[in-house]
Amino acid sequence: MTTVANGVNVQALLDAREALKGAPEAAQFVWRASSKWQDGVHSTTRVKEFFGLGQEQEHKSEAVFDADHPEVFAAQDNGITPIEYLLIGLASCLTAGVASVAQNRGIQLRSVEAALEGKHDIRGILGVDSDVRNGFNDIKVTFTIDADASRQDIEALVAQSQKRSAVFDALTNPTDVTVEVA
Amino acid sequence: MLERGEVANSWRHERWDSFRLLTPNWQSRLPGHRYEGPDPDGYMTMAEVTAFIEGFAARSGAPVRTGADVTSVRRAGDGYQVTTGGGEFRCRSVVIASGACNVPVVPPFAGAVPGSVEQLTPFDYRGPAQLPDGGVLVVGASATGVQLAAELRRSGRPVTLSVGEHVRLPRTYRGRDVLWWMDASGVWDQRFDEIDDLTRARRLPSPQLIGTDERTTLDLNALTSMGVEPVGRLAAVRDGRALFSGGLRNVFSLADLKMERLLDTFDAWAREHGRDGEVGPPERFAPTRAPERARLQLDLRGGEIRTIVWATGFRPDYGWLDVPVVDEKGRLRHEGGVVDSPGLYALGLPVLRRRRSTFIHGIESDAREVIDHLATVTLAQRPGA
Predict the structure, then answer these.
(1) Cβ–Cβ under 8 Å, residues B150 and B172
(2) B246/A173 CB distance under 8 A
(3) Labelling B301: which of A5, A106, B311, B348 has CA 20 to 30 A away?
(4) Is residue A153 part of a domain?
(5) Which residues of B touch A160 (CB under 8 A)?
(6) Torsion of CA B339, B345, B348, B352, to 10 degrees
(7) Are B257 and A152 an interchain contact pair (Cβ–Cβ within 8 Å)?
(8) Complex-level ipTM
(9) CATH number of the domain at B9-102+315-381, out of 3.50.50.60, 3.55.40.10, 3.40.630.30, 2.60.120.200?
């Protein structure tokens, strides 16, 4: 197990798990993003600060994300569409899970690639047909993984990463969302 | 021995009519008492379980006081004060053997289900005849959920089954009852202090098994072949709609992978112990079939669903235990049955000392070890003992 180097500090995660068992309040995190309208359907969203372990925290540097719509939507395409950000979240969350679980199970990864497809019927957002939903109809993730493990073990990694994924949960289960005007 | 009702009370009063044990008859063994009937591979009905336990009570001469409902156990001096409907007891030591399934667990959003839908727990359920005609949503796919879903489907009702994480098992493997494998291969002998994630092992849902004369497998493929419609884990009831998780495929994968790993363990054990000759060839089972498009919501006001059966598990009830040994999740704090209060013990809880702890035949070795502690530690400390 010591020879496996996927770059995940699993011991720190296991220690955190133990420490938080007796301190649920420290486990309460708040993730934040703030966005600003630019022009048209173009907006810029910045992410830097968050709250966790009982205090304010921040990333090493601020991250800036532009979202827009493509030219086929008669927009400027200054950035990817908002719904594509969900695919980024899902891909990166599941990949992080695969790496962490592999490290914990002593499986050396050589490469982990994922192709994502979110099927989206835009008649929903355009109001063409009220029976069509606004969001994805379904999402398909296909992992290609090269690792020192059997196919069964690799499938188990992917299954476990879904089981412990924040974004997979957020996409597959309803979440209470409040939107208000300040 | 204080028994709130009659001997085998929960078997008499807290099971549905068609209920049968999951373990084959030959596994029903207690010290000096075992199944002696003509069908060792069969599964006991409730009447048979009741008779079996009554037989043991008589044979062992256990000093059972029936109708003695315990309303309070509290620390008193170097022992405990036990209050029952029939009087008070003082004792040095108490063994809690009240089980893990005293109260059906129902999720909080059950309160948001429209009043037009009838709701039942497994404690209320006796048989399909008590339900209104029409569709049933069974929530939960452990042993209880799959058994009730199958029985309700056979009664002609449309059945939707909400499936979260579950344990898939074939009824027989390589010609033997799957629980023969659990017993023979030593899986059930794994001790509580050898298990990596004991909390998870203790929370494991009961396997998708049913005891029938035909020894049929009742996994999700069997249920979908009967016409039961699987949907994801019930996540919420909002505006009269049941909302299901879109993660159904992954709970199928997790259960299929875990089952395969278990069968690999059995095969390795048979090979290493020279048992391949007495069982059939290794088998592998088709992956759980995912529906083309599982429904993500159901309108509970539309009349499609007339009844919801909450097969969402059970919890112990320690409302009578006035000793601070219950954690924030309502579970008893104990180490292999030795509870965190001098002289207080537990028996018959999931993976109390071994994986077999909650089975009828699992009590013997647990009881010996727990009682050994009671005799050598608790009673040895008694003044003048």
Answers:
(1) no
(2) yes
(3) B311
(4) yes
(5) 254
(6) 40
(7) yes
(8) 0.88
(9) 3.50.50.60
